[in-house]
Write a structure and sequence with these properties.
CATH class: Alpha Beta
Number of strands: 3
Protein name: Fe-S metabolism associated domain-containing protein
Helix content: 40-55%
Largest sheet: 3 strands, antiparallel
CATH architecture: Alpha-Beta Complex
Organism: Paramixta manurensis
InterPro entries: Fe-S_metab-assoc_dom
CATH topology: Sufe protein. Chain: A
Number of domains: 1
Pfam families: SufE
Shape: globular
Structural class: alpha+beta
Strand content: 15-25%
Radius of gyration: 14 Å
């Protein structure tokens, strides 16, 4: 499996965070940058007992999927924004499977990622991985 390229601006941003609280704030500040669900399009609703998330997937060409989404949790939305920014990044165009956890490990925010899995992010990751595995 080809490794995923993470945009330099995300690496630079998180490399400046020297505490968990700064990383947490930086994650939340990424929420507004989430690729928006296109007007008039339906997104898959994923919910658990704590949060609701919406994932939109579009097949762009034979090897490329585009992801967008939303969530009622600013933390989940920020993590989704980071994940979708990396997956949608042009250098990753021909990759059809991703190691999602690697994105967050590289940015040094794996603790936030792992703690958010039971709060709804796990459903989003499952949906993204499923879409990537079934992409033709």
């Amino acid at each position: 499996m080809k490794s995923i390229t993470i945009p330099d601006n995300l690496i630079d941003l998180f490399s400046q965070c020297d505490t968990l609280s700064k990383k947490y704030i930086t994650i939340m500040l990424q929420a507004p940058a989430i690729p928006p669900i296109p007007d008039g399009e339906k997104a898959k609703e994923l919910f658990n007992c704590q949060n609701v998330a919406y994932v939109f997937t579009r097949q762009m060409d034979k090897h490329t999927l585009y992801f967008a989404g939303d969530s009622d949790s600013i933390l989940i939305k920020g993590l989704m924004s980071i994940m979708f920014t990396c997956i949608n990044y042009p250098a990753n165009r021909d990759i059809t499977r991703y190691n999602i956890a690697r994105i967050f490990q590289t940015l040094g925010i794996e603790k936030h990622y792992e703690e958010s899995l039971p709060m709804g992010l796990g459903l989003v990751v499952d949906e993204v991985e499923s879409a990537l595995l079934t992409a033709k």
